[in-house]
Structure formats: structure tokens, C-alpha cells
Design brief:
- By secondary structure, the protein is mainly alpha-helical.
- Helix content is 69%, strand content 0%.
- The protein is built from 6 helices and no strands.
- Residues 1-12 have low confidence and may be disordered.
């Protein structure tokens, strides 16, 4: 069975019978991928807006939102058609924080800017999660 298969031959999600260690590894991958996405996003935002990278990267609010958004990556990867999984995970990881930034947090930058910098987050977070789960020490 592949790493990101949706269901087994009988029924149910691949997360139903997860061991405690597997769950901890999944949570670690989610947290690390959210932080990796925040760092990548912070580099771009700091460069384009000429503001402090450290303040952006270490912001508890930004990291919390990033980790919460990253928590959906494994479910998107596990429940979308095989060929569209990465694109769906990146799209979700770009659109969700963009909507939050504009509509919830009231960011006043244009949508194109918000989507562009969150695309950096989406690619970095998804790539980090996939790498950690497939090739890293946090795999199943």
C-alpha cells in the first residue's frame, strides 16, 4: 500500500488504526512543515516589504496559523485522487491562509500579493511534509 493511500481494501481511513508512535510522528511532521512554510513565507515577505525576518518567522500567531493549516495537508494528501494530491495540498495551503489573512485578520495588501506569498508557504509546507514522511526520520 502506498504512503498516501486513502483507504485500505476493507474500509476506513488510514488514520483509524494509527499507533501512538505513528501519531506522534505525524504531529511532528505537521508542526515542522508548518514552521518550514512560515520560514519560507517570512523570507519572501521580509524581502518584498523590507521588514524584519526574525519578527515574522518567530511570530507565535503566524506559526500557530501555519501549523493549523499544515494539519490539513495529510488529509488532503490522503483523500484526493493520486495525480492531484500535491496540487490539492498546495492549493489548500495557499488559499486557506490567504482567506484568513484577508477576511479574518484584515490584511490590507492586494489579493495577488497575499496569494503569492502564501503560495510560497503552501509549496514549502507541503514539500516539507512529504519529505519528512517519505524520506525523513519522521516517516511511518
Amino acid at each position: 500500500m502506498s504512503l498516501y493511500s486513502q483507504t485500505d481494501r476493507n474500509h476506513g481511513s488510514r488514520y483509524e488504526n494509527m499507533t501512538a508512535l505513528s501519531f506522534v510522528k505525524l504531529v511532528m511532521a505537521i508542526i515542522l512543515s508548518g514552521i518550514a512554510g512560515t520560514i519560507a513565507n517570512s523570507i519572501v515577505v521580509a524581502y518584498w516589504l523590507n521588514i524584519s525576518f526574525i519578527d515574522l518567522a518567530l511570530s507565535p500567531g503566524r506559526n500557530t496559523v501555519a501549523i493549523l493549516v499544515a494539519a490539513f495537508i495529510p488529509f488532503v494528501l490522503g483523500h484526493v485522487v493520486v495525480r492531484k494530491r500535491l496540487a490539492a495540498a498546495i492549493a489548500f495551503s495557499t488559499i486557506a491562509p490567504s482567506i484568513l489573512a484577508k477576511l479574518v485578520f484584515g490584511l490590507e495588501f492586494p489579493w495577488t500579493f497575499v496569494l503569492a506569498v502564501n503560495l510560497v508557504y503552501g509549496v514549502a509546507a507541503t514539500y516539507a511534509f512529504v519529505c519528512l514522511r517519505r524520506f525523513g526520520t519522521i516517516r511511518e
